[in-house]
Amino acid sequence: MREMLWWQGLRLLDMQLPGASVGVGEHVRLIMDAPCQHAMMEKIIHRSQAGGADAWQVWLETEQGRFPVDAPEFHARVGIMIRHRGLLANLSLRENLLLPFLYHGDGERIAAAEHELDGVAERLGLAGMLHEQAGERSGYTHALVSLGRCMLLHPAVIVAQEIHVGMSPEHLERFRELAIAALAQLGSGLLYLTSTEHEGSGVHFDRTLVPGLLSLAA
Predict the structure, then answer these.
(1) Is residue 211 helix, strand or coil?
(2) Cα torsion through 8, 11, 16, 19, rounded to 10
(3) Contacts by 172-177 with C-beta closer than 8 Å and gap 24+?
(4) Edge-first strand listing for the sheet containing 58-62
(5) Counting Cβ atoms within 10 Å, is residue 144 exposed (0-12), middle (13-18) or buried (19+)?
(6) What is the share, in percent, of the chain residues with pLDDT greater than 90?
(7) Contacts of 12 (CB under 8 A, 6+ apart)
(8) Nearest by Cα to 101 from 89, 85, 90, 117
(9) What is the pLDDT of residue 10?
(10) What is the spatial distance between Cα 151 and Cα 178, in angstroms, rounded to a whole number?
(11) Is the pLDDT of residue 48 over 70?
């Protein structure tokens, strides 16, 4: 059975989001305005607010069972990419890349991520900056760190929120190349939250979902 990210019964501000899923290797675009995108990400990221029955509005289905959004197994297999929120300024870029693993405190996973980190940083053009404090960085660097975390995590599914928006043309083209290559290598599913079909990611989407309408062919 493929690992699948599911959602059902989600109320996002004034919108009721129809239930759907994204599987490993499947790329799905979900079109909705920015406030609803943020509300969706809140449901996925902030586990402390998702306890009880609400946790089962979003879940990961695997061969080992079903894991709600507040389960460690969920966050070990679902990667997150958020525009302009990829870095903590007081940490080095190296620490920022390892932050999800340090947060969970799993020594084996930390060691595995550290083993891969230098190679990932080299691919992303961050190798010479790892020990610098993050401080104020461009949206491009935030996006690179978010992508790097996913490359270290090897997630079943990645949830991304308009990660490409606002980059310069040069950075956008380079990030497209890096992200598409990483998706191909990881084989992860992708749920891309965006306000338009013309978001510029360069990704081929298997499905486009528009709440309130039937899903559209890619």
Answers:
(1) coil
(2) -10
(3) 172/200, 175/140, 175/143, 175/144, 175/147, 176/200, 176/201, 176/202
(4) 20-23, 4-7, 58-62, 65-68
(5) buried
(6) 61
(7) 32, 36, 39, 40, 43
(8) 117
(9) 86
(10) 11
(11) no
Q: Which runs of E-coded beta strand occur in the chain?
A: 4-7, 10-12, 15-17, 20-23, 27-31, 58-62, 65-68, 78-82, 157-161, 189-194, 207-209, 216-217
For residue 116, the Cα-to-chain-centroid distance in whole angstroms is 19
Beta-bridge partner residues of 29: 192, 208
Tokens 């902030």, residue located: 46
The predicted pLDDT at position 50 comes to 44
Residue in the block written with tokens 């089962």:
56
Q: What is the pLDDT of residues 135-159, one digit of tens each?
A: 888 889 999 999 999 999 999 999 9
pLDDT of 47 above 70: no
pTM over 0.85: yes
